[in-house]
Acetate--CoA ligase family protein (Billgrantia kenyensis), 1458 residues
Amino acid sequence: MNPIEGHLPIRSPLHDILAPTGIAVIGASSDPTKRGYKAMVGLIKDGFRGDIYPVNPKADMILGVKAWPSIAEIPGNPELALICTPAASVPGLISECGRRGIKGAVILASGFAEMDAEGAALESEMMARAKAHGVRIIGPNTSGVFNLHHRLNLLALDNVRPGDVGIISQSGNMLLSLALEAQYNGQVGFSTYVGPGNQSDIGFNDYLRYLGEDEHTRVATLYVEGFRDGRNFLDVAREVTAMKPVVVYKSGSTAAGQKAASSHTGALAGSYAMTVDLLKQSGVSVVQHSDEILPVAEGLGLLQKARGKRVAVISDGGGQATIASDRLSEAGLELAELSEQTRQKLREVLFPQASTVNPVDVAGSTDANPSLLATCMEIVAADDNVDSVFLVGMFGGYSIRFAESLLGDEMRGAEAMVDLSKATGKPLVVYSLYTPIKPPALRRLHEAGLPIYASIEHAVRVLSALGERGQYLAQVERQSRERSVTPLPELSAMFQRAQREGRDLFEYEAKQLLRDHGIEVPLELVVRNEAELAEAAQRFGETPLAMKVVSKDILHKSDAGGVKLNVVGEAAMREARQAILASCLAYDAGAEIEGVLVTPMAKKGVEVILGVIRDPIFGPVLMFGLGGIFVEILEDVAFRSIPLSRHDAEDMVEQIKARKILAGVRGEKAVDKSALVDLLLKVSRIADAYPELSELDLNPVIVNSDGYAVVDARVIVDREHVATKESVA
Amino acid sequence: MNPIEGHLPIRSPLHDILAPTGIAVIGASSDPTKRGYKAMVGLIKDGFRGDIYPVNPKADMILGVKAWPSIAEIPGNPELALICTPAASVPGLISECGRRGIKGAVILASGFAEMDAEGAALESEMMARAKAHGVRIIGPNTSGVFNLHHRLNLLALDNVRPGDVGIISQSGNMLLSLALEAQYNGQVGFSTYVGPGNQSDIGFNDYLRYLGEDEHTRVATLYVEGFRDGRNFLDVAREVTAMKPVVVYKSGSTAAGQKAASSHTGALAGSYAMTVDLLKQSGVSVVQHSDEILPVAEGLGLLQKARGKRVAVISDGGGQATIASDRLSEAGLELAELSEQTRQKLREVLFPQASTVNPVDVAGSTDANPSLLATCMEIVAADDNVDSVFLVGMFGGYSIRFAESLLGDEMRGAEAMVDLSKATGKPLVVYSLYTPIKPPALRRLHEAGLPIYASIEHAVRVLSALGERGQYLAQVERQSRERSVTPLPELSAMFQRAQREGRDLFEYEAKQLLRDHGIEVPLELVVRNEAELAEAAQRFGETPLAMKVVSKDILHKSDAGGVKLNVVGEAAMREARQAILASCLAYDAGAEIEGVLVTPMAKKGVEVILGVIRDPIFGPVLMFGLGGIFVEILEDVAFRSIPLSRHDAEDMVEQIKARKILAGVRGEKAVDKSALVDLLLKVSRIADAYPELSELDLNPVIVNSDGYAVVDARVIVDREHVATKESVA
């Protein structure tokens, strides 16, 4: 399957439910304070094209529509029921829906599992009946749904226009807020909205899959408080982002927020930093502020992607060119370096005092001639070094600020920008300080599908999302995720032994696991007698060695005099061994001493940490960071879902703030990044191959310009997991 | 002078210039494309109360106002001239203005010093004439000025309303952008605007002082690309912030932005991080994003300050309560811990499923009863643990979303909030998702001076600024900046000796400087012979010592075998000395060896760095950070203008991200912060007392739970500065 062109294998059942030819409104009402009234108003006002069947035993007509006393008596064949009645009535109604052939029900009532044990029992009862009758459930406890392209507006929101932004939101207020924002700025329209509610049947991931398939949705936008099956979500997201942008705002970025979220939805929030890393790994565009959701969704919906992160700025005000440069730089975007040819062309059309270095500052050249801005945009868009074009300043307002007579020229400029946007494959993003008052030239740009922003900050977030998406798609096309290795029978047996004995792997076993899968682990020999010492001396030659006592009775080896460093040659080794034995026995006369471990001294380098965890939400995850304070104090770590692609591994190494240290500081050579990337990939493959491996911790690994040395390895064994034929096949 | 109640000693001449009884518009025009037309329109449309004298030799009337052929022929006594003519004409016109008794001139033309050498000469000529005739200059190359409370609108901006936000902006586009934003959201009004332009006479700092004095300005708002006399700016800012909030947006936060700014204004940008620290030290509210300028200015103008950073959130939607919690936490604010009494009162009015833990989630309790939100606000505002109240959700929209019949109750709620805002000293900040469409209840709140936001992010920035300002004012009231010490004659002589010899201080001199001002520096003795060694052994007793060769010929002491560590007792010292001498002479037979330096081994602890620099813009500045990668790679440092207050010093230690390390990690004890604060204050005093000290670098200082040890000290001497009587007095 080509992930860009392809379609998801299973068509979501939501297509039928959310585009019904008829709808039963159970609990429809003429009382304006009732939800059953609101929904009727929404359907009627928006001109729902199918049949509406209000169900209410106490009314003949509701808002001019004939009402029916029960579901059984409805004459047509509605696919969807909206249930507005209280929780207790729901299980019975679901059975009735099922008997009437209704395929899906939207259940607004709360008072189910989110409430108490009694509610949970009611929810189970409801689900049992839904399954028995083949009725799919949206909710319960949902804020509702709409599908504006089918004029199905069960929320009765005023003034929402059909468009291409699909929304799934775990907060009804958030949907409302986005709808009001869209109404206010008048640019964005919506396709489908779903409030997942308790997700007792159809869940978050199913809704995302549906938005991925929905032809009216060009961008899927999600407000998430907590994931349930995060691992599956990442899989679905990967499929959907290959086809269209997915924008996620995840709340609970702080401990305070997570506490608030868990009291709201009861969802387990998990580490925010990890969640963000994993979402990005699946191609999701993550926004960090709630007021960026709609601008970013709009921009991605209209422009989809940029080839890269090199932005050309055209500005008619030096101050705002500076602000734009600051924000671009902070967002990890680059100011494109314009070619000499481009600069020459700009010089030909601009005043001498203009700056033709990016950010281009026209310095008054356009005051009497605003369409010249379009010419400048065309010139920079033609430059191979430019991935996207950012117009900053007062375009649209020249005829207001300077002279009305400029309106004609300004409209010509707008027309030229529209032509340019069609001709060039590069995104054009416009910030104008006149955006709030929507002058004609900006209205023209907007009609033609160019996004116009009232905030430099928001425009830059859009440019950043476009660049990230373009780069993501490029690397996804280039490579697939690295395949897992086949588990080795003797290592699977080793895990089983540990499981039987109710213990984790011994360090030497952990190191064996690594070694057998191609990870270089320094040789370690346990010397038990003079003969073994002679043999070890033979093998290590003149290599400086570390020697450590091996005894289950001696925990603090150094305190017991059980460690000798920088030992070279057989004579010194013998002396060191005797000293260690003597000292340890003096320290604890009863200690059972197995022998002395001999291994080469670790080379100097940078300490890094690799860890594998099985996250309860997201499954197996690899963590990488620098050792010591970087992980513990600065929390400067990167996470990726296992298995990693090569790009993922490379990206992890570049992501951490301490990457400068890996690149070499204070005259140190850069570490061998390709060896490090190779190590990350091998660890990922091992974790993928052995489901019995619950956690893995390489801490520290010393990396330097020659490669790496795994100093310590720890593997926690999943005592529950019993390897199946499949997992050892 | 009480800094809160007091007034600035000198009244700014700008009061007369910016509130003139008459204005001459030189170069007034009937051509709508000319600036001399725009200005006339602005004055007439806004109803300027004084006399308008268009000056244009070619016209009798301009826009219905009698024109005058020259300045000399004007009949009245205008205080102000607006000069709209090209640069070359300006010097002559200034003389004419002066002869006519005009006190100030606003000069729009560019083509002066910002252009080229010829322009610079023209500017000098203009200034010579201005000084000769006592005419004060705004500009040249200014975007203009307005003083809306005097209906003096020389920019001819439409739809700007008089209000209490004063603005100084180094970008005309930025002013325009703020004016359009204010027009759009319809809440904010302006007092005075000035574009400082080339600042050839009146400068940035004078304008700030004027806004500080101006009775119509409740908050001064500045867009700054670069400071000139930054030290003086900080002084003026300190005086003004004691009276009213000062909001600064400083562009050039990144290298890319600084490059763009310098090509725009030619201003030297300086370190952004340092600038932000110094501005905050002077009580300035720094905003980081351009779209936060107006929201923060508005909020500070209306609400001025909060007692602290403990915020109570009242929300009608769990999702947005979560977002608010995230943003508050990220901004360094706290979710106030509500007292049991407060929670009990909330429980009495809310549904059982409501959460009375902050963030308070009313969970549907207000759906049919929105005025209950005001009741909740009143309950939490009465809690001593609460410094400000943040209402989050759909207030104002209940009558739109639920039922029109709720409008009456919603208006009662708004009225109750207005009453509460008057009764409580605590700021009430409202985010409503209905803000964009301005429903009646929100309009009522706004009329009463409560700021209403359309973005949780902006509302939180306002809460943060209110809390910071409240805490700043509290500490300013408590303490003044620490006074400088008196220079000691022998140390001044030491500096003079170094100056004469054209060198910096020797390390031992630098340490002497520190010691003589009460900083503990470990004892160091240079041992030149056996007798001195015996004497040193006597003094150090059983203290473990470090011994190092002292020789100008041996740079790499360790390589030469010139260092011995952990030496204890006279015999070992003697042996170490002999070994050092032998080894060094073997290393370089010709080396001239002065002796061997003996000092106690540095204790274990955390390495920190203290530095003093004389910044070209901001003058003497103290820098503090952790050693090694923290300064070099992570740039995790704090800056304060010298002299520091005790609060400044304490604040520096708390500001760095690595503060956790000072608090003790991995079982280490916390370092002695009071000793560290004491060290910072002493270094500040020394730098203040000795202007000959150009730079000071204590790197590293080892701090631990027992105190600190200055390991290395370096002092760079200002070779230009000659100590005056004053500076040594």
Notes: DSSP finds 26 helices and 30 strands in chain B. Chain B touches chain A through 84 residues (CB under 8 Å). Residues 1-8, 725-729 of chain B have pLDDT under 50 and may be disordered. The longest helix of chain B spans residues 456-478.
